[in-house]
Specification:
The protein has 122 residues and is mainly alpha-helical. 43% of the residues lie in helices and 9% in strands. The strands form two sheets. The chain has a two-stranded antiparallel ribbon. A two-stranded antiparallel ribbon has the order 2-3. Helix 2 runs antiparallel to helix 3. The chain is elongated and about 75 Å long.
Length: 122
């Protein structure tokens, strides 16, 4: 009988601990802002101006970082995209690292001005 009491107490403690962790992780994810719609749109247009070409990089560890840039599913937050860095407080894009990304194309006035104008906000 005493064993059942300990088991009951243990199960109850486990339940409350898992509830606490669930609440904690839910509140932490809501603290981080999502990226801004105009910046996400600018990044997607910037991506579309290039071609993914695996031979465009000599780095053996190169991979197309922009492949994660999509509006589908849970990956629609551009702050979670490979190569994109966001301000933790505002959610604004503050950096893009596309090194060794297998991209082929040119940066010109049409694709760079769109990107720069949308990310130059404070």
């Amino acid at each position: 009988m005493e064993t059942y009491l300990y088991l009951f107490i243990f199960m109850r403690l486990l339940f409350f601990l898992s509830m606490f962790l669930l609440l904690l992780t839910g509140s932490m994810s809501s603290l981080q802002p999502l990226c801004h719609e105009d910046e996400r749109s600018a990044l997607l247009q910037f991506k579309d101006s290039f071609i993914i070409d695996n031979s465009a990089s000599g780095d053996p560890f190169a991979y197309p970082k922009v492949a994660s840039w999509t509006l589908k599913g849970e990956n629609s937050d551009c702050c979670s995209w490979d190569g994109v860095e966001c301000n933790e407080d505002t959610g604004h894009v503050i950096g893009v690292d596309l090194s060794s990304s297998c991209l082929y194309g040119s940066i010109n006035s049409s694709n760079s001005s769109l990107f720069l104008s949308s990310t130059s906000k404070a």
